[in-house]
Design goal:
The structure holds two protein chains of two kinds. Chain A is an alpha/beta fold. Chain A has a domain of 140 residues: Rossmann fold. Chain A contains nine helices and nine strands. Chain A has a six-stranded mixed beta sheet, with helices on both faces. The longest helix of chain A has 14 residues. The two termini of chain B are 26 Å apart. Chain B has two domains: 147 residues; 123 residues, no CATH class. The chains are: A alpha/beta, B mainly alpha. Chains A and B meet through helix 2 and helix 3 of A and helix 1 and helix 3 of B.
């Protein structure tokens, strides 16, 4: 059963088309780069998978379920902005995730927080923007989910933090799950990807394995992206 | 899941409301001291300080009432329609559970605020004779109740319960009107808060307009003729009146509940 599947998926914002008959599927056990220029529909697709938006036409499913409370048990979602409540302490945030997600691995989260020297009693609002983003990533990656949807996890952070984020993703995800990483910083994520989806103006341009691209086209994903989306 | 949502909602709101209640009780105690020994003092500085302490109590009353109201709106807005919405609305819970959690917690704080205000007023007015008189009134009531027939006691209890249910439902329905306005206003791409305020006034106008139309319609209906010719006892009239008001408030709340659910489910538009 695909971890994420779309069939003829359409979404419009007024007269603007965000997604246009998008069809693809992502199998479990794959790390997939959802790649496209700004405004190509990446975030809209992730919001639709989370049920934060309703499609205008077509079908989207997560592990065989339409978006809803049931499918959200299977998804671990990292939004593009910091969404964790800043009034909470780190410990209260772990309590919160532990209460709502049966697959939350509290020990893994505590270990990662300790590695960053974050005290459980420290409040989120006392942390820097970068630390908040790391804490959010830690709780998201501490779940043994079936599908990880990571929206711009390395956008707007320094190169050292990018490395930390990518290593956290790689060393903590459930190997039986699919990981979708939406980004346009391809050079940084390319090394961890199994597969890429290129989308532009809401349409699927390419779905291929990273090794396949390198062998058949003789270029890196970054180089191919630059060629496909040349202005 | 509703219980867990409520637990975290109480945690979020309690950190604001509980210190406020503490301030209210402390300022009430200060007002009591001021009233006994300070305001009538010959030393003007002490008298002035007493005046300030009474003023602090008045401000604390205002703050507690205002905050329980502001929190009801702010929690819905910030927790579901702003950045936190990305976390909350992707939890494995339904929109219905989110609304109920917010609604129940808001109403609990409204009722707690009323209770703490009553307690604070008792603290301000406290002296031994006052408390003796106050509980003396209770003793009189209890003695009076012993003389009542069972049917009268039962009716009295039910009327009090009906009245409490009416207050509880009205507070919940009034909160839902705010939720519906915020959800509708935030479904639009720009100027979300301005549209939310606009939606609230449109809803208010519709409630008043439709309410008036309903009363006009009722006055021309067979129900009104029946009620005009009906000659119930006072107790039955009170029961009927309260039950009719409960039914109307239920309809009022249900409409805004449906509007809120509709916009959050079908037209959610987080930035």
């Amino acid at each position: 059963m695909p971890a994420l599947e779309c069939k003829e998926l359409c979404k419009n914002y007024g007269r603007t088309t965000a997604l246009d008959r998008l069809t693809f599927s992502i199998e479990p056990g794959r790390i997939v780069g959802l790649l496209g220029p700004n405004g190509s529909g990446k975030t809209t697709l992730i919001k639709l998978a989370n049920g934060l938006l309703t499609p205008d036409a077509g079908y989207i499913s997560v592990c065989g379920c339409a978006p809803g409370p049931q499918s959200r048990k299977d998804i671990s979602y990292l939004p593009e902005r910091t969404a964790i409540p800043i009034w909470m302490s780190a410990k209260q945030l772990l309590d919160f995730y532990g209460d709502f997600y049966e697959d939350f691995r509290r020990d893994a989260a505590e270990e990662m927080l300790a590695h960053l020297n974050i005290s459980p009693s420290q409040r989120i609002k006392q942390m820097s923007k970068g630390t908040r983003e790391k804490v959010q990533l830690i709780v998201v990656m501490s779940r043994a989910a079936k599908l990880y949807l990571l929206d711009e996890p390395i956008g707007g952070v320094d190169p050292a933090t990018r490395d930390y984020i990518l290593s956290t993703i790689i060393s903590n995800y459930n190997p039986e799950a699919a990981v979708v990483i939406s980004t346009h910083l391809i050079a940084d994520v390319e090394k961890v990807l199994d597969e890429v989806l290129f989308i532009n103006q809401g349409q699927l341009v390419l779905q291929a394995g990273v090794d396949e691209i390198r062998e058949e086209k003789g270029m890196s994903v970054d180089a191919l992206f630059r060629e496909v989306f040349k202005c | 899941m509703l219980r867990k949502l409520m637990k975290h909602e109480f945690r979020a709101t309690g950190q604001i409301m509980l210190p406020l209640y503490l301030i209210l009780l402390v300022t009430a105690f200060g007002s009591n001291i001021a009233g006994r020994w300070m305001i009538d003092s010959q030393i003007s500085a002490v008298s002035l300080l007493g005046g300030f302490m009474v003023m602090a109590f008045a401000i604390a009353i205002f703050a507690a009432c205002l905050m329980s109201f502001v929190l009801m709106i702010q929690r819905f807005y910030k927790n579901l329609l702003q950045d936190e919405g990305y976390l909350m609305l992707t939890l494995p819970v339904s929109i219905h559970q989110h609304i109920w959690a917010k609604l129940i917690v808001s109403v609990v704080w409204f009722i707690t605020t009323l209770f703490v205000l009553f307690l604070a007023c008792m603290v301000v007015a406290y002296n031994v004779r006052f408390i003796q008189e106050f509980f003396g009134v209770f003793a009189d009531i209890l003695r009076g109740l012993q003389k009542l027939k069972i049917s009268e006691a039962l009716n009295g209890t039910v009327i009090i319960l009906e009245f409490l249910v009416l207050i509880f439902l009205f507070l919940a329905a009034f909160s839902l009107q705010f939720y519906a306005a915020l959800a509708a206003g935030h479904s639009l791409p720009n100027h979300k808060m301005a549209y939310s305020v606009g939606c609230f006034f449109v809803f208010q106008f519709l409630v008043q307009f439709l309410g008036t139309m309903f009363l006009i319609g009722l006055s021309k209906s067979p129900v009104f003729r029946f009620l005009s010719n009906w000659d119930p006892s006072a107790i039955v009239a009170i029961h009927t009146g309260l039950l009719m008001m409960i039914a109307l408030v239920l309809v009022y709340g249900a409409i805004f509940y449906i509007v809120t659910i509709f916009f959050l489910k079908k037209h959610l538009n987080l930035e």
